[in-house]
Fold this protein.
Amino acid sequence: MAKREISIWFFIGISLLVNGAIICAAGIYQYLYPPIEKVVLFDTHAGIWWGAVLFLCGLLYCLKFPPRRTAN
């Protein structure tokens, strides 16, 4: 019976992918419906940028370290 190992980096990629999507979606929502009292750097839309960066990093990790089938 073949031993199947999944790289920890694949799971880190999934975590970055999901968190990036959530942060980016929250940033887009906040962009479309701005709060009444804005923080100092609100106009930089950091949530959108950092969410997109996390999403892309997670996508790269998931593509670079996918679970593979091992041959007998």
Q: What stands out?
A: The chain has two helices and no strands. Residues 9 and 65 are 6 Å apart (CA to CA).
